[in-house]
Amino acid sequence: MNLHAYVLLCRLLLLSISIPFVMVALVPDMVEAKPLNTVESKRDDYSIIIFPHLHRLVVQQHNKTIKSYHIAVGDPATPTPTGEFRIIFKGENWGPSFGPRWLGLNVTWGNYGIHGTNKPYSIGRHASHGCIRMRNKDVIELYEMIPIGTKVTIMGHALGDLRHNPRDLAEGDVGGDVQLIQSRLQSAGYYTGRCDGKFRSSTTQALKRYQRDHHLEPNGVVSFPIYVHLGLVE
């Protein structure tokens, strides 16, 4: 699907749920953070849909749209994860950068969540380290509304903005694109570890074996030719 078709699909989805249109940053350890009880409640009453390219977060209750918020999302170098996740943690006071509230997601390759910000001017931009940023008053409202266990669907492609080539990947990187590379290497018989989106030494070694067998420079870096060889781009 090209970018124009993807954006058109997003707009049609938005129209279908009667709305016009959260940014995510990697979360450092916060000693003073106040976690809440993580007992699951009526998690299926609510759902959240996030449209990164439209900078919009939509809340549905029993499949009916009840709220829509303007958000910020990840910078292209540190993209917001895409796919289906769950709210697994709710907390307060994660520090000024994260605003008054935090709703954590079960992303396997890092600590991502929906939170407030001390940079309200970033709302409407691709500006975070992957988290979903909201205005502080909005995230407080969302926090009170959404129970732990709520499904969060983040629209988009694992390889990021389709107008540009996918980013190069190397050991130490994390993300849905890393998970996709691991899955392809696993299907080809080179990777035997868990496809967790974390580019560790086991992924590097599997990639180097693949590169040698396909007469590519065995440098352990996923560059554009690797994406082509693995059938991820044309």
From TrEMBL:
Residues 46-155 form the L,D-TPase catalytic domain. Pathway: Cell wall biogenesis; peptidoglycan biosynthesis. PROSITE patterns: LD_TPASE. Keywords: Cell shape, Cell wall biogenesis/degradation, Glycosyltransferase, Hydrolase, Peptidoglycan synthesis, Transferase. The keyword Glycosyltransferase applies. It comes from the Bacteria. Pfam families: PG_binding_1 (PF01471), YkuD (PF03734). Belongs to the YkuD family. This is L,D-transpeptidase family protein. It comes from Paenibacillus alvei. The lineage of its organism: Bacteria, Bacillati, Bacillota, Bacilli, Bacillales.
